[in-house]
Amino acid sequence: MDIIIKSEKPFEVSFEDLSGKIRRVLVHHKGSFYMVSENTALKETLIFPASPTGEIESWSEVGGGKGITLEEVLVNFEQELFGYF
Fold first, then answer.
1. Which residues, 6+ apart, have CB-to-CB distance to 83 below 8 Å?
2. What span, in angstroms and rounded, lies between the C-alpha atoms of 42 and 50?
3. 72-75: Cβ within 8 A, 24+ apart
4. Quick one: residue 30, left, alpha or beta (phi over 0 = left, psi -120 to 50 = alpha)?
5. Which pLDDT score is estimated for 84?
6. Mean of the per-residue pLDDT values of the chain
7. What is the Cα–Cα distance from 49 to 82, expressed in whole angstroms?
8. Could you tell me the pTM of the whole model?
9. Distance CA 81, CA 49 (A)
């Protein structure tokens, strides 16, 4: 797994009475690209299929989950992908 691009600056988000930041990292893993996106307001980090330039290709997550940070996903990237065996 290689980190390609880290987002320059986290951007602010608000959901109902929650507020936080979105942090994103573009990852290249086994020939595919993924955007790893952490939402601190919702306390979740999700993995989405992405293009080599970082455009999210589908909003159907392929990994990650609630209660996990961006750093934790990056350390255990392959295990965080759905369908890992």
1. none
2. 22
3. 72/45, 73/36, 73/38, 73/45, 73/47, 74/1, 74/3, 74/25, 74/27, 74/36
4. left
5. 59
6. 89
7. 12
8. 0.86
9. 11
Query: Do residues 45 and 68 make contact, with C-beta atoms less than 8 angstroms apart?
Result: yes
Q: Tell me 35's DSSP state.
A: E
The one-letter amino acid code at 17 reads: D
Neighbouring CB atoms inside 10 A of 72's CB total 14
pLDDT tens-place string over residues 14-55: 767 778 889 999 999 999 999 999 999 899 999 999 999 999
Place of tokens 């990056």: 74
Higher pLDDT, 7 or 65: 65
Neighbours of 19 (CB within 10 A): 11
